[in-house]
Amino acid sequence: DESRIDRVRDPASQLAGAGPSHRGVSPVPADAIDGHAYHTYSLESADGKVEFQIRHNVQGRSTYAEGTVDAAVFLAKRVAGADKRRQFDMIDVLKSGEM
User: Fold this and answer.
1) By the 8 A CB rule, do 20 and 6 touch?
2) What are the pLDDT digits (tens) for 12-44?
3) Alpha carbon distances (Å) from 80 to 15, 35, 37, 74, 83
4) Which of 2, 36, 39, 55 could form an SS bridge with 32, CB 3.0 to 4.6 Å?
């Protein structure tokens, strides 16, 4: 349910690692504030006594640019090789090991 997602867009809160329901969230470094993907996924027990978090933190946009190039090269090879499949995802690119 997307209504349960807290999006923290305020730079001061991002720098502080805070948000409406964000406990223990990594602060975004100041030099990455204009290009980052800091995401924390939290599961909390009904009584609020247990919390489990998964995080991924990406600084800058180069990772996304490199992934886009990897995907384009992957697709070009599939077209050149007359691959019959017409739909792929990034898991296919990663599994191919062509990065």
Assistant:
1) yes
2) 888 988 766 666 678 999 999 999 998 888 888
3) 46, 34, 34, 10, 8
4) 36
